[in-house]
Amino acid sequence: MSFQCFKGCLKEPFDKFGYCPDSFDNIPVFVQACVFFCTDDRDCPSTEKCCLHSCGQTCKPALGLFNEIHLPSVPYNLTVKEKKRKNGVHLSWEFDSLNKNQTILFVLEERHHLGRFYNEPLLGEWNPIYSSKKNFVNLKNVIKPGYWYQFRVASVNVNGTKGFSTESEGFKLARRPKLQKPTKLRIEQVKEKNGTIWGTVRWSPSESSIPVQRYKIFWSHRLDERDTNFKSEAVLVQKDLVPENQLHYHLKSLKKNTEYFIQLQALAFYGRNAIKSKMAKMIFKTSKFEDQFEMNDFD
Q1: Where are the domains of the chain?
Q2: pTM of whole model > 0.90?
């Protein structure tokens, strides 16, 4: 049974195993209103069933699943261990099989949040990430540094499932998250204005495990004897901060016939710690009225 088959089966009308509760006394009043929250079991998540009450239908956890012999048992003792290479993670679990001949598919789900410290209320929705016929899985380059994860696993056969295992403890890779430097750094729309040079620096965001929160741009040039602050080998450095959703910066009033050194860096905060990418770099010659691009071999 493939994972695609499993997802397709969930879209077909079917009756889940188990039964609805006899009493709805503990259901909130707004749920008992004359509203049909579901039409059949496929409208209900996980092992919940679509149950009819006095004036409508609503999803309720199915009863009687524990003793249902046609469904596989719930996995237990889910463990998570970090491997040394490629952000690898090994997950394993135990499972009691009553019928060695039946085909069992294990479905693994995760939820996560970004942050230096674990905070369970910040975890997002559950997402399926893997399916296997074995009671273990090795994940490579799926788990990202800088995020806390929680896992759970369910066993599924042709008849359905009894639900997911107990959630794992919070898990995080030991490696500190990194920011990749911006790519495709370039100068466009170069023009002369009022005796000075103007141009637009543009770049593309890089693939990083944590989101960029801002960019820091530097532009510098050597001073010559005509500059007020001239000193031998002196360099004038200017800088500015750019919002994370802005992938360009306008350079204004640059000196003509001058060589500028452009640097761009991605920034993020991880807890109280600042994370900085390596610099993307290029040389911009204001004697050329044309687009100029990052020197990829300039390091």
Answers
A1: 15-62, 76-172, 183-292
A2: no
Fold designation for 183-292? Immunoglobulin-like (2.60.40)
CATH number 3.10.290.10 is the correct assignment for the domain at 76-172 = no
The count of residues in the chain is 299
- Domain 15-62 shares a fold with domain 76-172: no
Residues in Cβ contact with 261 at an 8 Å cutoff, skipping those fewer than 6 apart: 218, 219, 220, 221, 281, 282, 283, 284
Which two three-digit tokens encode residue 135? Answer: 């009671």
SS3 at position 153: strand
List pLDDT tens digits, range 188-237.
988 989 889 999 999 999 878 899 999 999 999 987 656 555 555 678 89
Q: 15-62 — its CATH code? A: 4.10.75.10
CA distance 40 to 58: 9
Q: Is the pLDDT assigned to residue 126 strictly greater than 70? A: yes
Mode of pairing for the β-strands spanning 48-53 and 56-61: antiparallel
Q: Smallest Cα–Cα separation from 252: which of 162, 211, 191, 181?
A: 191
Distances (CA, A) of 131 to 88, 126, 152, 238, 277: 17, 14, 12, 53, 35
